[in-house]
Amino acid sequence: MLADEFGREVSGVRVSLTDRCNFDCVYCHNEGLGDTRGPMAPQDHEMSADDVVRFLEVAAEFGVDSVKFTGGEPMLRQDLEEIIRRTPDSMEASMTTNGTFLPGRAEALVDAGLSRVNVSQDALDPEQFAAVTKSGAYDRVLEGVEAALDAGLAPVKLNMVVFEKTAGYVPEMVDHVAENDGLRLQLIEYMPELVGKPEWAIDIDRVHDWLGERADRVEHREMHDRRRYWIRDEDAPEDGDVDEATGGMVEIVDPVENPTFCANCHRVRVTHDGYLKGCLNRNDDLRSMGEMTTDEIRETFRETVANRVPFYGEYMVRNGDGEWEMNEKYLDAPEDESTADTDAGSEPQPAYDGGVEDGYSSTD
Prior knowledge:
By secondary structure, the chain is of the alpha/beta class.
């Protein structure tokens, strides 16, 4: 596997297949690039299936063993099944989706090779759900979760972004996964670095503390130094350890101001228009793969991995007052490392400008 100068091997890639989405979630950052709401028709700037597969074949050469397909909404791609089918056999293929297109397609996706799925679900009440997603597709999302379970994709992870508008829904969502077989809950910390509106952020440690008191068992996950909270179903026997049969698992993804999280990042991202991206929080590290010949992909992938920098703890560092600020070491980086050719679409953004109102996507 390729590793950066901080010793972080790249074992996984996240590939955005489109910046289109049929939702307009208020917290969305679209892999840090910009708003996803717009025309639903296929766009010329999106990578073709051949483009995506060529990249994955190169990544597999370097020992990358997992790929997560994202968007926008990846299921707006009618060739998604083809892409998954052509993914190298050595890679586990997973997907993050809003779930609305899973009914009718979940079985075909599994037949193509999909192993896991994350479904975004921020509330259990249709009106609350609509307020966050700007969508009336609540019932369709529930149908999508059931379709995924019926197709054999258990456990299905429900992604819930935790911020001012959704924090009050957490207890109900926790009970929901504890009471329903095959579900897990992933609580994702709201990231004002990418979305702006810092007033929406909450103290994620309070959620950790509440779950610690509520949980019957707590595990520590080495990846990103995360904790897993196992919640027993109220109707389950109280003797013995809680597990998938007697409860549900809740995990918190908390990257904001978390050097440990960044120190354990093992992913490279690919934007829908063919840019390699070493860090979600940065857009000054975009590297275009151009026409995506195999040699170009191979070299650009090597360079992207070599230039990866942990966002917190290196790119952003504490000053003498304990506040986060840009590391001066990276302020005057050479142009070929700090910017990217913008001919292919997205104009690079500063790593932190506090006011980019764009889209969101889960980290796992």
